[in-house]
Prior knowledge:
By secondary structure, the protein is of the alpha/beta class. It is built from twelve helices and twelve strands. The protein folds into three domains: 8-134, Response regulator (Rossmann fold, 3-Layer(aba) Sandwich); 157-208; 217-377, Histidine kinase-like ATPase, C-terminal domain (Heat Shock Protein 90, 2-Layer Sandwich), CATH 3.30.565.
Amino acid sequence: MYQNNNPKILIIDDIAENIKVVANVLKKHNFNISYAQSGKDGIARAKKVYFDLILLDIMMPEMDGFEVCKFLKKDNETKDIPVIFLTAKTDEDSLKKGFESGGIDFITKPFKTNELLARVNTHIQLKLVQEQLSRINEEIQEANENKDKLLSIIAHDLRNPFSVLITFSKLIMDSFEEFSKEDILTYMKSFYETSKQGYSLLDNLLKWSKSQTGKMDIIPDSFEINDLVEETITLLNSQALNKHINLKNNVPEHILAFADINMVLTVLRNLITNAIKFTNEGGNVHISAEQNEKHVKISIIDDGVGMEAEDIDKLFRIDIKHSTSGTIGERGTGLGIILCKEFIEKNNGELLVESKPNVGSTFSFTLPKVETSNLQLGN
């Protein structure tokens, strides 16, 4: 039997008594019945309401059933609705014409109740299966597109830091005697920054891959947000100092959240790194937090270059290459923001973005607030 409640069926027949007989049978089995007494009215109703099945009479004035079916199958709004002909015309030519017009079955008048129910249920079930297969195909296509994007990131963006390391290390090896200590120190600093970039990218790629395959365990726990922010700032402070950026923790103490700590650390690291990347030298990046009855909200606020409204949605789409250089040429892939969104949503939160060009950006995310029961359980 059909799994959805009250499947919608449209009966198109110019004779009211025929409609009444069919409708009475189907209503007893929880079908939601609509009707039309002309082909024109039937088409109009089918375009307003998406029906699961249409039962269509052939012999009607003005537009016969074959014409109606052809019209339905040509229209994108109605072409996927299965059509069964209800008719006394069972000659070979009529059957051929019915199938050619797009019908999927015939029920002969006068019909048997069991036959009507069996055919209706069968074709609605087939429609359900086709819709499920269509959704699966769309998911497979999306997965393949994501895989291609991931491979593109690996092939292009992960190659860049290695190219820099190989080029400069070979240069030093070939001309070592010609370089001063200051020159070598300059190159070593470049090696260090490039290595960090490559490691960060690789770390995000691995975590994103685990997230997509469901292999990453989510272990929620209670924690103080201030502690995680302070830990992240300590890790990234050298990047901020390099651009003379004021990196400030404004999160009050004793604000607790309940989420996977490692995932939240990854989100903080990516968002704060991005804020530093797109803030001009001498700028400011502040981290704040607030809470209500159910959630805590953590915000990373910068006074950097900002972005246009139409670019915000692109940040969350892996099928669009949207990676721009930072204010001093820092490189990135944009994958970090996608990873942040997925991690926050897996922890029952939401990632929000506000930005204005030449004013700055605010990346905020919510997390569940610690409940008293969680503390009592020691979670």
